[in-house]
Amino acid sequence: MPRDTLTREQIVRAAIELLDAEGLEGLSMRSLGVRLGSAATAVYWHIKSKDYLVRLAGDEVWSEIQLPDLSAVDWRTAATTMANDLYATFTRHPWLVQAFSSGSHLLYGPGKARYDDHSLAVYEMAGFVGAQADQATATVFMFVLGSALGEAATVGLRRRLGRDGGNAEELIRDTVVRASEIGMRFPRLRARLEGGAAVGYAAAPDKSFEFGLQAIFDGLEARLAAGRTLTSKGAH
Fold first, then answer.
1. Is the pTM of this model over 0.85?
2. How far is Cα 61 from Cα 12, in angstroms, rounded to an integer?
3. Dist. CA 15–CA 3, nearest whole Å
4. How many structural domains does the chain have?
């Protein structure tokens, strides 16, 4: 595809597809040019660097998240919806988690700003003011990012093992078996393994994400209630 027929939107969309398939390490201007049926120089005509391309791709992905109508739901429902959608986005695009956790790319733009602004609105609606709204937003974001990190790491591991010529699934299964054998030496781990933890004690239990998210919201609500109690006592 000649450079004068390429658009930045086409390049960014192709970059997202390549990143989803190959991760950050699989993205290059040459591989992107092959996917677009164009020379790498034609891509450079529109996008000046890989870092810039990752930033554009990341911000485009951020725009996939639907923002709840705050006039139609309570703050906790809105916060749960946004956290679940963010987690789903991270698991669809594990390279985005990789970019955040490695610190290898600076990610910003209107898509992320749109999400961040709506998050602040949610916690302000709950009753948090100023820095507390920022802290509540950051706490939930870091929990979602950390929860998605394990899945993103597994995707990256499978990809690396496959490139090295090994059978990724077989290697992972063997590792789980060896880890479980070690776990059997310890009483609490042994009880869980003997109780049916077939995938190994290191695996997260079902509904762990939902449990953690609701625990955070319970804590935030408790802080709000405590603040209202102190304010009420001060008024008297």
1. no
2. 10
3. 16
4. 2
Q: Are residues 94 and 146 in the same domain?
A: yes
Residue 27 shares a structural domain with residue 75:
no
Q: How confident is the model at residue 107 (pLDDT cuts 50, 70, 90)?
A: confident
Structure tokens at 117: 């602004």
Q: What pLDDT, on the 0 to 100 scale, is given for residue 98?
A: 87
> Do 33 and 91 lie in a common domain?
no
Q: Is the same domain home to 35 and 149?
A: no
Structural domain boundaries, residue 34: 8-48
Same domain assignment for residues 42 and 76: no
Q: Are residues 108 and 209 in the same domain?
A: yes
127/192 Cα distance (integer angstroms): 41
- Chain Cα centroid distance, residue 65: 12
Structure tokens, 198? 């077939």
Task: Indicate if the pLDDT at residue 165 is higher than 60.
Answer: yes
State the burial class of residue 126 (Cβ atoms within 10 Å of its Cβ: 0-12, 13-18, 19+): buried
* Residue 185 pLDDT > 70: yes
pLDDT at residue 230 in the model: 47
Chain segment 93-102, per-residue pLDDT in tens: 999 998 888 7
